[in-house]
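Contributing new complexes? Match this layout with zinc ion.
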Amino acid sequence: MEKEECIFCKIIKKQIPCDMVYEDDKVIAFNDISPEAPVHVIIIPRQHINNVNSLNQDEAELIGHIFMVAKKIVKTLGIDETGYRIVSNSGKQGGQTVEHLHFHLLGGRMLKWPPG
Ligand code: AMP
Ligand code: ZN
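Output block (do not edit by hand):
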């Protein structure tokens, strides 16, 4: 399922360009257009899922796969040892602005905690 107006579905369909970092048959990863850190990659499933609320049990493997992809990317970008953060914002108070499940992969600098 995909949403006509979803910006990330448009990236997947190559209707909008992106700075691709990784792709396979299940997920794509690209550099965030407005990076908050030297490394700021967005990892998304090709399948349109709104956010964590809409996850089904049969998508559990897909979420596991996303983390395996994150592991590959941090190694490739050389931040596996220095550290990084993987974040998925859900809903208004979670700060979600794009309603297509995505994981921010942030690194390359000392990250503050807790987030604002
Ligand atoms: P969130 O605010 O958690 O929903 O994250 C959405 C992220 O997508 C933000 O960090 C945006 O900068 C990023 N973003 C929005 N449009 C694009 C785009 N066309 N290409 C790359 N990143 C984008
Ligand atoms: Zn979508």
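Reviewers usually confirm one structural detail per submission. For this one: Residues 60-76 form the longest helix (17 residues).
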